[in-house]
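Weekly structure sync, notes
Attendees: PL (lead), two postdocs, one rotation student
Agenda item 3: pending single-chain targets
PL asked that the sequence for the first pending target be pasted directly into the notes so everyone works from the same version. It is reproduced below exactly as submitted, 167 residues in total.
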Amino acid sequence: MDHEALLESRAPATARGGARTGAFIGRRLLAMAYDLLPVLSLWFLLGFLFALGYTLAGHDPRENIAPWSPLQWLLWLCCWALTGGYATASWRRGGQTLGMRPWRLRVVDAEGGPPPWPALWRRYAVATLSLAAGGLGFWWAWLDRDRLTWHDRAAGTRMRHEPRERA
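Predicted structure, written out during the meeting:
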């Protein structure tokens, strides 16, 4: 593929005069379901480290971290940050998380390139709020003329469905 064709393929659909290229909500949800597997592994590892630290701090090995305690809140905050680190690093490195690859989804900025770090973290934070609101920000993509979710609008990003590569 020559340089001009590559630039053309990365330009937004509206700039090329083509149809919308936004990803359907179904593919987005399937990608999130796939991403649950690596995220759960990271959470298990983090939980193990917290439990190990709790035990080394002098607590009985069979004693759980108390629910709603400051340490429990710290664990949840660390899980959120670790998940954000996984998502934003994946989006920045190649535009895709592991769950987005089989569905050929890619996060890009408005010009079709890799989004900057602050935009990716803003995207992740607003997506978290969107999920907390019952997924309203995701369902919004059905109503949006460009198929953008709340977090895509807030961060200036787009999720594209990449065409199948022909051999």
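Discussion points:
- The radius of gyration is 19 Å.
- Residues 21-161 form one domain.
Action: rotation student to compare against the earlier draft before next sync.
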